[in-house]
Each structure stands twice: as C-alpha cells, then as structure tokens.
Design brief:
This protein is mainly α. The chain has a single domain, classed as Four Helix Bundle (Hemerythrin (Met), subunit A). 75% of the residues lie in helices and 0% in strands. The chain is built from six helices and no strands. Helix 3 packs antiparallel against helix 4. The termini are far apart.
Length: 214
C-alpha cells in the first residue's frame, strides 16, 4: 500500500501537538474524556437544565435498579427488588423515552449542524458527530431495557428452577450492561453534549424548543 510521506509528516506533527497521547494499552478514562467541558449548570439555558433534571430522576431510579440487581444475586427475587424494578421501568417509560425524543427531535439536529460548521466531526467519508454516538446509545439502551424486561417476565413464569435461573442470569447480565451504558451516556451528555449545546446554539433557538415542546 502506498503511503504519502507528507501525510505521514502531518500526522506526526498533529500527534506531537497533543500534550498527552492515548495508547491502546493505556486508553483514556471514560469518565475523564479529553472533550470534557466545564460549564456551570446554573448558567445553562432552561431547556438544557430540564434535560439535566431528567437525568437526575433517571439516575435515582438507576441506583435503585442496580441495588436490586445486586440483591437478587445475593438473596434471589424479593418484593423489594420487584418494586425497584417496577420503579425503574416506570421511570424509563415516563422520563427516559420522552427525554430521548426531546433530544432527537429538537436538540441533536441543530447541535449536529453547529458541530459540522465548527469542524467537530469525524474526518472519514461518512460525517459523524457526538450526536450520532448519543443516538446510537439511545437505540442500544432501549434494546437492552426491552430484553431485560422480557427476560424477567419470562423468568417469573417458569416453574422449572434450572430454566428460571438460566433466564434470570441472562437478565442480570444484560442489566449490568444497561446500568453501565446509561451511566456513561448520562455523564457524556452532562459534561460534553449539553455544554457544547450551551456554547454553540443561540439561546433563542433553545427557547423555541421549549415553546414548541409544550
């Protein structure tokens, strides 16, 4: 394969301009990303604050869900774990799904356009931005939640103990993945996506989102 020497030189210069280069053997901490932006929540537009409020409610239900998953592994299904699961899925249906729709209908299209204008996108043949990653998360989160809900429902109806435990183990494994994905997704939106929206989107546009959503 032919390599252009000038391309190689340019890549080396770009690498040297980065203070701390990431290595596959020493990847960056997912909760301390290079693109993290510090913005005071109180300075954000009310539309963005509302999305963060949604996250806080979701995180509360997620903590109860995680506690229930841990308790099931230790003592089996109990009325308390069932209540925590019910609360989580109520919050998922009432808050998370509506939250995602607000982001994908109003925020993400405008933010994606601004990111592309600013050059904050992938350099490949297919242009992608941070909003594409968030939308992919949404799809994966909804898929996992659906699988987990159905697995737990199936486990509760199985009379054979061995079969029930197999299905329950599968549900708990998927629950672990969902918990970590949702936690990381919320962190990335709170510390990267929403601060970017705060910086790049005109406040009048954000206000129009609130008016149209009512």
């Amino acid at each position: 394969m032919h390599h252009d020497p000038e391309d190689q030189i340019r890549r080396n210069v770009e690498k040297e301009s980065v203070q701390e280069e990431c290595s596959p053997m020493d990847p960056p901490d997912a909760y301390n990303p290079p693109g993290k932006i510090t913005v005071n929540i109180e300075d954000m537009h009310p539309f963005l604050k509302g999305l963060i409020d949604d996250h806080n409610e979701i995180k509360g239900a997620l903590e109860g869900f995680e506690t229930a998953v841990r308790a099931i592994r230790e003592t089996g299904v109990t009325p308390d774990s069932n209540r925590a699961f019910a609360q989580f899925f109520r919050t998922f249906d009432d808050v998370f799904l509506a939250h995602d729709k607000k982001e994908e209908k109003y925020l993400f299209p405008v933010l994606e356009s601004e990111l592309i204008k600013k050059g904050e996108h992938s350099k490949g043949s297919v242009v992608t931005t941070a909003t594409d990653v968030m939308e992919e998360d949404h799809v994966r989160i909804i898929q996992l939640a659906s699988v987990i809900f159905n697995f737990f429902g199936l486990a509760s109806r199985l009379t054979d103990t061995a079969s029930r435990n197999i299905v329950l183990d599968a549900a708990l494994s998927q629950a672990d993945e969902l918990i970590e994905l949702m936690r990381l997704h919320i962190f990335r939106e709170d510390t990267i996506v929403f601060p970017l929206a705060h910086q790049l989107i005109d406040s009048k546009v954000l206000t129009s989102f609130m008016i149209e959503h009512k």
